[in-house]
Design brief:
Two copies of one chain form a homodimer. In chain A, 30% of the residues lie in helices and 26% in strands. By secondary structure, chain A is an alpha/beta fold. In chain A, α6 links the parallel β7 and β8. The first copy, chain A, starts with a strand and ends in a 6-residue tail after the last helix. The C terminus of chain A is likely disordered. Chains A and B meet through α1, α4, β5, α5 and β6 of A and α1, α4, β5, α5 and β6 of B.
Chain lengths: 254, 254
Amino acid sequence: MNQLFVVGIGPGDYESMSIRAERILKNCQVIIGYTVYVELIQKFFPEAEFLTTPMRKEKERCELAFSQAEAGKMTALICSGDAGVYGMAGLVLSMAEMHPQTKITIVPGITAASSGAAVLGAPLMHDFAVISLSDLLTPWETIEARLRAAAEGDFVICLYNPASKKRADYLERACRILLNYKPEDTVCGLARNVGREGESCQVLSLGELLNTPADMFTTVFIGSSQTKAVAANGEIRMETPRGYEKKRKTPETP
Amino acid sequence: MNQLFVVGIGPGDYESMSIRAERILKNCQVIIGYTVYVELIQKFFPEAEFLTTPMRKEKERCELAFSQAEAGKMTALICSGDAGVYGMAGLVLSMAEMHPQTKITIVPGITAASSGAAVLGAPLMHDFAVISLSDLLTPWETIEARLRAAAEGDFVICLYNPASKKRADYLERACRILLNYKPEDTVCGLARNVGREGESCQVLSLGELLNTPADMFTTVFIGSSQTKAVAANGEIRMETPRGYEKKRKTPETP
């Protein structure tokens, strides 16, 4: 049977890939992906043939992957982060019925919520919501409704695709909505270029986040009411307590 | 400077660990964790000294880790999944100020939302909320409020800790709440023992999920209004479309 693997490669540095993803990519004859991600890993798999399609050609990329697999080549379609979180796993699965001769295997990776959180400290220690601010495929009204619902539920909120050249003010718009529910001093964080050149992070307030630029390589974290700024190794980091401290308080005796 | 690594080992199978996690654990002299996770990886790191503490002794586990690091041993504290998602990263960071001589590094892993989603298909292709049903450290009212908010926002919902021996009916209670917002035929999924012996998954309706047992090694996925059941490789899988199909519809011409 033909084999198509949909592989999440993690944030971008080779070492963040899972051992399984590495083994599968080493065995694949063809590796397909968006140009930027192919460039990140190409040198590590010198024996594979690499094929790229530009951004927004997702369906064509999947069709290319199926056609390579159906030519009998062991094929991987790579995604940054996790193939199953805003990645290509869904589109590939939606085409599975048309390609019954191809076995599809989804190989998860470390998504930007996890890799960004690790750089910023521990913002996701309690319940959280992941929202993409890209309105290319989702109406802005839906995004806004989800921001409101996540704020009402006091989730930590992790924003993917907070801005792009065409959507320069989307993060500001999101912050204005959240400021209806959350105080200005809510602890927030930005993780930029995680696992890539220029990796950096910043802990700041929601009021400050409102006026802070972001791009498509930034992941944004907006704290819950419990999230704190803590000092660690001489840096300021985010921490959302899970509640161990509370548990250990001795109950008051009458 | 003393070194303490807080390492997410992923769902449980060795290959789901990141290459970085493997390299760090190979270099550590002491590896500390909850007994079950230590047993999963102990044989792969024969040169390390392993120390365990039982469940619910999280603070003691962190103190043990700091004390080992401060004895000059390169030390890792391991967590299943991602160290930063309901893991130990937060508690360690909250103790950082008391241990200024120890450099803390958080090493992310593949969390159960990602590893469970990959087994079930592609349920997390669009915005999602992660909620733990454990009320050991969180009041049930908070959990219930988050379930309601996530349903109102039409998020895909991923439930961690859906049940335990003492909380056998919590998943049922959660389903009853969600049924106030979502139809009975909402597409849901269960992923059990991912990356471990007895791995299995099941796609079912919210009405069926209500009466389905789960345990602490189960991750539950409740679809949004858009989530579909799709056939792939002769199995039924979950898919939450990201909207590529919609985008490609030709606009109606007058």
